[in-house]
Amino acid sequence: MTVCIDQNDHLVTITIDREQKLNALDYPTIDALLAAFDRIDSDDSVRAVILTGAGRRAFSAGADIPSLAGSIAGGAERALREIVRRGHGLTRRIEEFPKPVIVAVNGLAYGGGCEITEAAPLAIAAEHATFAKPEITLGFPPPFGGSQRLPRHVGRKRGLEMILTGDPIPATRAAEIGLVNAVVPADELLDAARDLAARIVRHAPTAVAACLRSVTRGINLPIDEGLAVEAACFAATVPTEGVRNGLRRFLDRSAASG
Known about the structure:
This protein is an alpha/beta fold. The protein folds into two domains: 3-201, 2-enoyl-CoA Hydratase, Chain A, domain 1, CATH 3.90.226; 205-257, Lyase 2-enoyl-coa Hydratase, Chain  A, domain 2 (Orthogonal Bundle), CATH 1.10.12. 53% of the residues lie in helices and 16% in strands. The protein has eleven helices and ten strands. A six-stranded mixed sheet has the order 1-2-3-5-7-10, with helices on both faces. A four-stranded mixed sheet has the order 4-6-8-9. Helix 1 links the parallel strand 2 and strand 3. Helix 1 packs parallel to helix 3 (76-95). The chain is globular. The N and C termini lie far apart (58 Å).
């Protein structure tokens, strides 16, 4: 097993468990992660997900290089099928997941590990965590979506500096440019992620899913198209129990205070 799943009430923690390989993403691990997200998606008892790595050295060192080298040796078509489609599938699944995914970066997040962080809606990093886009040192651009998401999230010039140099940045810099939400001591990482999850799941699941969908689908659209996405997501919540309960609580409080 290279992926461990632990559920505690409404929260599931997924751990990439290849500590001796710096939690590198070989193909079975990527496939196991996809299967885990499929299972969690269909489980209504799960309200939020924390994704982390085993140990303290690495969240994930990225793609497993021996696997990647074998695919590249088979030519472009095989490399696209085994590397790019699989990597795009994983990061897109995380990015579009209807429940909040919080990445808890417990060490280095290089290559695919950084791309997962980019794709996740939320991320918290341990103080010793580092982030890098070292694909250029292997002769190719990021293949898991990083050449597109990183510049969109942190800005073209900041993104290109990481992509073109391959140099790592510390967690504090990752927070400054918006790659992670917060930096905490390593011993507090999972508690901080759980606290963030708790502050989200106190709200109606229909509202949480609508907010995620609205931002994810609209963020890269022209503003008019993005506003149309927002309107559709709002309309979808109108008949829900979450709206009825939320309005009733507000009106009851107003009546009591008046």
